[in-house]
Amino acid sequence: MLSEKTIEIIKQITPTVAAHADTITCKFYQRMFAGNPEVKAYFNQAHQQSGQQPAALAGAVCAYFANIDNLAALGPEVELIAQKHCSLGVQPEHYPIVGKHLLDAIKDVMGEAATEDILAAVGEAYGLLADICIGREGEIYDHLESQPGGWNGRRTFLLDRKVRESDLVTSFYFKPADGAALPNYLPGQYITVFIDHPKTPTSPRNYSLSDVPGNDYFRISVKRESAAQADTPDGLISTYLHDNLETGDRIDLGPPCGEFTIDPTAPPSRPIVFVAGGIGVTPLLSMAKSLVAANASVPITFIQAAKNSAVHAMGDELRALGNDTDSITTRIIFDEPCSGDVESGKCDDVGLVDKVYLAQHTSALEADYYFCGPKPFMIAVESALTELGVKASRRHCEFFGPKQPVVAP
Questions:
Q1: Catalytic pick from 64, 126, 137, 259?
Q2: Which of 53, 104, 272, 277 makes the best surface tag, with the fewest CB within 10 Å?
């Protein structure tokens, strides 16, 4: 427990920290990578360069300080962090490194305003949060390693096959190199791909598992991102997977992790609506297929939005899912259809997923919603659900990358 003095000091400095949070976190990463370069291997450098990771950390720091006397409210944030850390192999000994550079960054930015009492309070608050995260991560590590086929850290796999899903998306099927069993996982979870790329060595990437658990393979479906520039890590790993990874190649993967999940063994009590934008279909497809396989008794609606048939991925698989069972209704909507897309039935609708569309095709006030896609898509869906009166507790979403606010700027 934190001392009353620490709680009071944190409350007092929260507005100041919030006003300078982005500067503090950018300074923090600069100091940490310079002082302890060994931890750089745990970070996606594309997210560093885009500013997403510092912004996400700034948001997490502000949320922690704002809830310093109500830590129970941070449960979902702690779970997100703990799952991410376990996917990457973060260990307890890394926390003091973070703490040191965070305090130094605060001193750099706040200057003389960062008194000894303030630094002591921040240090105490950070220590408590570190203990909470370390405890939860220990539980996750124990679960990952103890289950049949489970592991921690890296495990070597072989690429069994590649399947082209669209002009931009390819599915990769991986099997363990040792031929041993695979662990079970919750639909919606991701695995970590470790590739020692010459431009961004050991820069990890998380990719959602896009098929149902229980197979003898892991499948990820990867969108080729925009062409990587010589001086940026963005797109390097997806491009490498598409162009360089071939059947039979070896690759290291981290175990299934993530908190954006559905448990198919716990029957849902309300209708389920999945709303996917672009490559956001991957975790949602795993969820939908798993619920159908478990004979879920509630109605399921799956809306998939894409630009057009050229970039539409997993459409045939989704259609087949809808055709094979009466419990799921699928709708595909294109916003810029190619010539012939509508006439050939490659989409059901033309337009955007908005309030009117969701009200027309879903049971808005009764269902639980799971949505995933690019940030503008996520903002649009979140806004539409808010306008329709869907409770926040029934809205579940996943960002590919550091957590971001699902609100218009």
A1: 137
A2: 104
Nearest to 15 by CA among 56, 61, 53, 72: 61
Residue 190 and residue 112 share a domain: no
b or e along 142-175 (b: 16 or more beta carbons within 10 Å of the residue's beta carbon)?
Answer: eebeeeeebbebebebbbeebeebbebbbbbbbb
Of 112, 146, 180, the last residue of a domain is 146
| Domain ranges, residue 76 | 4-146
Residue at token pair 């890590």: 233
- 354 sits in which H/E element: none
* Short-list 241, 209, 211, CA closest to 223: 241
The torsion region of residue 95 among left (phi > 0), alpha (psi -120 to 50) and beta comes to alpha
CATH number, domain of 239, equals 2.40.30.10
Q: How far is CA 60 from its chain centroid?
A: 15
380, 406 Cβ separation under 8 angstroms = no
Task: Note whether 38 and 44 are within 8 A (CB).
Answer: no
| pLDDT on residue 407 | 47
Tell me the C-alpha distance between 402 and 247, whole Å: 31
* Backbone φ, ψ for residue 206 (5° rounding): -100, 135
Residue 50 has a pLDDT of: 62
Q: Which two tokens stand for residue 13?
A: 């400095």
Choose the catalytic residue: 95, 207, 357, 369.
95
- pLDDT tens digits, 2-29: 999 999 999 999 999 899 989 999 999 9
Q: Which of 143, 142, 137 is nearest to 92 (CA)?
A: 137
Task: Tell me if 203 sits within 8 A of 228, measured CB to CB.
Answer: no
For the stretch 262-295, pLDDT in tens is: 999 998 889 999 999 999 999 999 999 999 999 9
